Amino acid sequence: MSLVVLMLASQLDIASTSVRVFGLNAKYLTGDPFGNYPDPYVKVWCGSSFGGMTDFHRDTANPSWSAEFNFPNCKENETLSLQVWDKDLNFDDHLGTCIRQVVKESSAITCNLNTGTLFYRYEVK
Ligand SMILES: *[C@@H]1O[C@H](CO)[C@@H](O)[C@H](O)[C@H]1NC(C)=O
Ligand SMILES: [Ca+2]
Ligand SMILES: [Ca+2]
C-alpha cells in the first residue's frame, strides 16, 4: 500500500466519529402555575440530526431517563441540543433547552434550564 492510501485511510478514520448521549436526569423541574408536577421528557439533536426523545415520566420534578442516543455522524464542534418538555394533554410546555458544543473528550454536562437543571453525559467515539 502506498503512503498516500495510508494517509487517506487515517483521515477517513478520524472523520468517522460518533457521539453517544446518555445518563439524562433533571432536578427541580416545575409543572404548571397550580403547583402540579411536570411530566418531563427530552428531545435530543446533534447539529441538524434529530436523535429521538426519551419517554415521559409522570408527575415528577426529578426524572431520570434510561434512554441513550447515538449520532453516527456527529463530530467535535457540532452542537448538542437537548430540549426539555412537560407532556400535557394538548400543548406540551417547553421547560428549557440546553446547547453545548461537542468537545473531543467525554463530558458530564450540568445545564440550567428556565427552572431546574438538566444533567447528561456524552462520549465521542
Ligand atoms: C474544533 O474547533 C477547534 C477550535 O476552533 C479546532 O482547533 C478544531 O480543529 C476543530 N475540530 C474539528 C473536527 O473541526
Ligand atoms: Ca404543563
Ligand atoms: Ca404535564
From TrEMBL:
Q: Please, which domain of life does this record's source organism belong to? A: Eukaryota
What Gene Ontology terms describe where this protein resides (cellular component)? membrane
Tell me which SMART domains the record gives: C2
UniProt keywords, alphabetically: Signal
The answer to keyword Signal applying to this record is yes
BP-aspect Gene Ontology terms: defense response to virus; immunological synapse formation; T cell mediated cytotoxicity
> Which region is the signal sequence?
1-17
- All copies of the C2 domain together span 1-113
GO molecular function annotation = wide pore channel activity
Name of a matching Pfam family? C2
Which InterPro entries does the entry link to?
C2_dom (IPR000008), C2_domain_sf (IPR035892), Perforin-1_pore-forming (IPR052784)
Q: What name does the UniProt record give this protein?
A: C2 domain-containing protein
